[in-house]
Design brief:
This protein has 293 residues and is α/β, with parallel strands linked by helices. It is built from ten helices and nine strands. It has a seven-stranded mixed sheet with strand order 5-4-3-6-7-9-8, with helices on both faces. It has a two-stranded antiparallel sheet with strand order 1-2.
Length: 293
């Protein structure tokens, strides 16, 4: 046998890396969308190392509980429910049953909002995150706009447990309540209202990914026959909360591009309503500015 280029035979492959390769194939066969990523994340989680350190796990230290975690993922339990953590921008969040798992596409929504707030001539901008769930958006805004005052609103008691855990020690003020009736004491004072609300049409239930359909809370997913019921309510809440010139940012489904800006109409007291694409160039969120009198 000819040695590989460079004249050195390959080094021994660790048991864990071999198991990760097998797990990747098993996850792929089960239809998991990101099998290699999930196999490595679960290996790192079970063995208490970073993904880049998997090769350092000695063969005797291989933990058979890895395959228990893989079996749960094969059954389409979300990766984040198994590990109990989700990553969002620069944050590591606690998540689990009862709270919506933040998605990567929401990061671009928050990025736009952060830039918009930084561009405001406001020393201590006041920000409200409606339907906060895990608190991902509110915490990212507080972290990346250091002098901001951030309020986060969540209705579900199950989700609120995670909101409070994640917000502990932060500057985010957490409130339990209905987003559509939230924070009347802040009416007319808020610089930016942001939300990732439920927006999936009830008619689309069967097409929703298993991880979301079976594990994310239903109230965080579905909102009426066309998916826009909550956003229509948020339009009124945002207009009530915002100061003149304040901005609203609302995430929506890529299939709803063009529909949501119409909800923030000039007749309702808005200006500059527009859609914006995500990193895949699909319409992902709408913004509008509260018109000045």
């Amino acid at each position: 046998m000819q040695p590989p280029i460079g004249g050195r035979p390959p080094g021994p492959r660790s048991l864990l890396l071999a198991e990760v390769a097998q797990a990747t194939q098993r996850l792929a066969d089960a239809g998991v969308p990101s099998p290699r990523n999930d196999a490595e994340e679960l290996a790192a989680y079970v063995h208490g190392v970073k993904r880049g350190e998997l090769h350092s796990v000695a063969d005797p230290d291989f933990d058979a509980r890895y395959w228990e975690a893989i079996n749960r993922r094969v059954a389409r339990e979300p990766l984040q429910h198994i590990t109990g953590r989700a990553y969002f921008r620069y944050l590591e969040l606690q998540v689990g049953p009862g709270v919506f798992v933040p998605r990567p596409e929401t990061e671009s929504v928050v990025g736009w909002a952060i830039d918009a707030v930084r561009a405001m001539d406001v020393v201590e901008p006041l920000i409200v995150d409606l339907c906060t769930g895990s608190g991902a958006i509110a915490l990212a805004m507080a972290q990346e706009v250091p002098r901001s005052k951030v309020h986060a609103v969540e209705l579900s008691e199950d989700a609120l447990k995670y909101t409070l855990k994640n917000a502990e020690g932060s500057r985010v003020a957490v409130h339990q309540g209905d987003a559509l009736a939230a924070l009347p004491e802040l009416d007319g004072q808020v610089d930016l209202v942001i939300s990732n609300p439920p927006y999936i049409p009830l008619t689309e239930w069967e097409y929703v990914a298993l991880e979301a359909r079976e594990y994310d809370p239903q109230m965080a997913l579905f909102s009426g026959d066309d998916g826009l019921d909550t956003i229509r309510g948020l339009e009124r809440t945002a207009h009530r909360l915002l100061r003149p010139g304040g901005i609203v940012v609302v995430e929506h489904a890529d299939t709803q591009g063009g529909q949501v800006p119409w909800i923030f109409s000039e007749e309702a007291g808005w200006a500059d309503a527009a859609d914006h694409p995500d990193l895949n160039n699909r319409p992902r969120f709408a913004t509008a500015r509260k018109a000045r009198p």
